[in-house]
Write a structure and sequence with these properties.
The protein is mainly α and 105 residues long. The protein has helices at residues 3-21, 25-38, 43-66, 70-103. It has four helices and no strands.
Length: 105
């Protein structure tokens, strides 16, 4: 691993962590655009639209890793994980609001 790979990964990690912790708009926008692909669709449509997209992204990261661009490959996987964490947090918050709305008379 070269110093450039470490620097690229550190830069991507910095933006991912900062975007997740401070709930920055760019992270929410990417998640929103991905959500529009499958929003309101059935389970199978979600599976066949979002599944190949995620697999293609991870295969691209694997291909970059095999080509020796380790920092960018690791950063791409970290970005995918950050998007997943943000989506789970949004789902949990939405479920919590729904539960609180049911408890109130």
């Amino acid at each position: 691993m070269t110093l450039l790979d470490v620097a690229v990964f550190a830069l991507i990690a910095y933006f991912c962590v900062r975007g997740y912790q401070k709930r920055q708009l760019w992270l929410a926008l990417v998640g929103h655009l991905l959500g529009k692909l499958y929003q309101g669709k059935g389970y199978w449509r979600q599976l066949f639209v979002l599944g190949p997209l995620i697999v293609a992204w991870l295969l691209l990261c694997h291909w970059l890793n095999n080509k020796g661009v380790y920092g960018l490959a690791a950063g791409g996987i970290l970005f995918a994980m950050t998007l997943a964490l943000d989506a789970m947090r949004g789902l949990e918050e939405r479920q919590k609001r729904e539960r609180e709305g049911e408890d109130k008379p």
